[in-house]
Amino acid sequence: MQIGMVGLGKMGLNLVKNMIRNGNEVVAYDLNADAIAEAEAAGAQAATTLQELVAKLDAPRTVWVMVPAGAPTDSTIEELTNLLSSGDYLIDGGNSYYKDSLRHAEMCEAKGINFFDCGTSGGQSGALEDGNFMIGGTSAEAFEHLKPLFEGIAEKDGYLYTGKPGSGHYMKMVHNGIEYGMMEAIGEGFEVLEKSPFDYDNEAVAKVWSHGSVIRGWLMELAEEAFAQDDNLDNISGKMFSSGEGKWTLEEALDQQTSTPVIAAALLNRYRSMEEDTFTGKVVSALRHGFGGHAMDMKK
Amino acid sequence: MQIGMVGLGKMGLNLVKNMIRNGNEVVAYDLNADAIAEAEAAGAQAATTLQELVAKLDAPRTVWVMVPAGAPTDSTIEELTNLLSSGDYLIDGGNSYYKDSLRHAEMCEAKGINFFDCGTSGGQSGALEDGNFMIGGTSAEAFEHLKPLFEGIAEKDGYLYTGKPGSGHYMKMVHNGIEYGMMEAIGEGFEVLEKSPFDYDNEAVAKVWSHGSVIRGWLMELAEEAFAQDDNLDNISGKMFSSGEGKWTLEEALDQQTSTPVIAAALLNRYRSMEEDTFTGKVVSALRHGFGGHAMDMKK
Amino acid sequence: MQIGMVGLGKMGLNLVKNMIRNGNEVVAYDLNADAIAEAEAAGAQAATTLQELVAKLDAPRTVWVMVPAGAPTDSTIEELTNLLSSGDYLIDGGNSYYKDSLRHAEMCEAKGINFFDCGTSGGQSGALEDGNFMIGGTSAEAFEHLKPLFEGIAEKDGYLYTGKPGSGHYMKMVHNGIEYGMMEAIGEGFEVLEKSPFDYDNEAVAKVWSHGSVIRGWLMELAEEAFAQDDNLDNISGKMFSSGEGKWTLEEALDQQTSTPVIAAALLNRYRSMEEDTFTGKVVSALRHGFGGHAMDMKK
Amino acid sequence: MQIGMVGLGKMGLNLVKNMIRNGNEVVAYDLNADAIAEAEAAGAQAATTLQELVAKLDAPRTVWVMVPAGAPTDSTIEELTNLLSSGDYLIDGGNSYYKDSLRHAEMCEAKGINFFDCGTSGGQSGALEDGNFMIGGTSAEAFEHLKPLFEGIAEKDGYLYTGKPGSGHYMKMVHNGIEYGMMEAIGEGFEVLEKSPFDYDNEAVAKVWSHGSVIRGWLMELAEEAFAQDDNLDNISGKMFSSGEGKWTLEEALDQQTSTPVIAAALLNRYRSMEEDTFTGKVVSALRHGFGGHAMDMKK
């Protein structure tokens, strides 16, 4: 089928290639001309404005938005709701907060545009070859129109229509919350091994755990690859950046009054990693000194 | 090769079948006559005492102990060190605490017996078909003798000689610590979905997450199977039993002064699940009532 | 001085008594006529509408709002901003979310009304005798006018002008976050004692810890009182209700990317206490069964 | 009464002064001659060996051991059990692990020596003036003999005979576990304030919270003192040392299978504070990079 792709970052461009390889026709747009050129090189048709992109698509049109969550997605979707027509399809494949998607869905519904919030997992390699997609939106019937697209670009059994608008991004949010917990668990395990009285070869450990163990999975395979390049990860620091979905998952849990201690601990440990030192620690240290005369670590 | 198997529980018996299918000869012993009969039916030779088992093996003998960790393993290994001879091989494939294995290794070393502490992962299906083994012990040279055995019963690339005695069970302990964290993360994620404003089909969620997502792996596949049988898990309670290795991992972390908040939270949440109610909660509730007159939940 | 008190619940009524005992004149209003009658009995003048309350005060008026946070406080303050005049004083002594207070401050500022967000601690006994107040608002100069009021109703050194509008309720929010952590720590300690091999008398423990120990403080004194009434707290359940400020503190920490593991754990443990059982636990139990054949606790 | 004091560190010396001020006679011994001289200056009689100390006491003798927990306490108590006689009193006032105290109690019992494990709280100032003592040991009857001593050196109502041997140090262990949780909660709260949009004066905050708030107590007063000296604690780092009792409390909770998430989080956060960076963080960062191409923080 024919898809208009808006946003040609690393994920968007890989999706374009994936779509084309699977027999789709893509009209590609980005603010960055080089990215458009790359998409053209991959076989896409170029569009230099959203108007042009929409104009180059036959009705009913399908537009896939793959731009950063928040303001960029907001303004892109707003503009597209003005350009698209009733019966068209608008897919937000980015990492939008599900409450934003609820809003976007309403905006589209008002115009008769079919809106789908599509959480995308599988990383860059998944985008390129066999992605993973959880898609909420207008209706199961409307989703039938998009099935051939996902059937092609997804890993076998790797996509799901999740129900009402918002449910796709919500499920992707929770997916990432789980991911935070799993990654931290793996990291902690390797740290215990690192400080053990034994002398483990991290790459070999990750490799054997990737073959037949209970904790095998893609993350362990990625650990093997990472250790293959730098067995003690000497070249990087332990700063753990985060891009919002772990936080959203915890906030959602708080709103539900659901106890999620592992997701919370994983998220807070990321925040901790961004700090050289903490005021919490200073206060505790000062209190210990206050009652027990215990030594404090003085700044030079 | 020829192996003496001591302990024919669900793991031991599956290993016997796995070994025989891979061309090994097994002499099998258990306290339970029915289990011995099952092993015989699977092609093993029966032994009704440890003495008989040892007598039926040609030197250098290889004996695999697969009995519950703690006292049963202790006494079995003690007895075997008296029956085996210098140059023989003794494998503890159970879930022994690594400090016990250090002790067992010393006992064996004193007699010239090669000792290997073998952590076994992959569950019952792994034991039966393609197991996962992390094996510490006497020396890499001595391990060469056992390689053909593991090459057969393990998943391809699914075994590793981990180094000095104790390092195999230590690595298995940490494997389980990671497992605790990952399982709890997955559980929390499904609980957030369960309480969400959307209506997810848990089996479908676990299935799509098993195909191409970042969090794919065996645990997610097992979740799919569990939900396939009972989509809301209505038939079971949320009591999370534990068998020691998560606790050992945390205790080890404490001894190392390693911060492992996710493994700790996962373990403590298992303990919490075994309680109907907590004294902690009563105290907090009574304190809130004390200063603010807040309502308490009275026992009828 | 003369104060109009809006809201005569347990905290409001105690404050009225405290104010009167300290030589202030109070005009009291509540939706509930009985509460007004109680205030009258305590020496206050009654008002049956907000209009009447405002009319009975001399300019510059001081009105203290002590109604539930959220919608009730919102509508009360909205109505009062219409009734009060430039130069009047409006104090929100409730547990409002500080972002609501920022909004209220703006509304007041637009009318020239001095707004103060006053976090109130010390519980019911504090309200009655020697309260604790953290007060943000319009300006330090404007606060001078209110000082005599707080000097009287507060414990000595028990009030503070905290700065800009919002800072009073923000500080009260954090106070409660700390309180959550402290209470949970105390509860956990008593639970460990409860399950110890020893036979402690909880009341005696709390009493001795209240006299000279490092962890002495009001919460420990309240624990002593609670145990004096019911040494094993047999009459109450461990359900730990919460009224929002712990959650706000954690949400604020998340927005700041501050790692607050103890406040998070205390809050999540409250949520956990409200559940009989968890879906998390069911999933973990099902996964354990899936790979290891471990027993699950079946629902009858 | 007459007491032999073994160990004249900061706690021991303060106790000597406290005992003398309360009308007791003290024979003091330490490995360090200067410390003995200080004790003499405070009115104690000097002893330069344990033998001499014991010889200078009248039967039934009372010896208070105040040396570092572990090996020093072990060897001191072992030596004293040889020097003391049936009917004498031996008090371990240090921070011994309660299982060590159980052992010490047995050793003493075998000789007919009354043994008391005395947890000491209240810090250095408490040792000097009004300490806090939780004392397990031989029997309530035997404790009667020591009551006058504790009645003098303790804060009013600040000592308790807690029951069987071990119960004193056990209770002190739990006291410190609670202390860890409370201190971390206080630290986290001040960190949230520090990063807030407001400009709090930490000393003023701690002061007002010390006067009438729910979270008032000695720790908050110590916070006030610490901030009075250095309002932003600029001169110290946030390294939080620990001396064992928080760890013991958590280990005890694990053995009981008691869920103590706040005590665990507080302890692990101390360990985290001792590290510049973590291997956990490196692993998580490498995994994020692996699947998403997310930027890592490279070591220069």
UniProtKB/TrEMBL annotation, chains A, B, C, D:
Protein name: Decarboxylating 6-phosphogluconate dehydrogenase
GO molecular function, a single term: phosphogluconate dehydrogenase (decarboxylating) activity
GO biological process, one term: D-gluconate metabolic process
Family to which this protein belongs: Belongs to the 6-phosphogluconate dehydrogenase family.
InterPro entries associated with the record: 6-PGluconate_DH-like_C_sf, 6DGDH_YqeC, 6PGD_dom2, 6PGDH_C, 6PGDH_NADP-bd, NAD(P)-bd_dom_sf, Pgluconate_DH
Domain 6-phosphogluconate dehydrogenase C-terminal: 168-295
UniProt keyword list: Gluconate utilization, Oxidoreductase
Name of the coding gene: gnd
Organism (species): Levilactobacillus bambusae
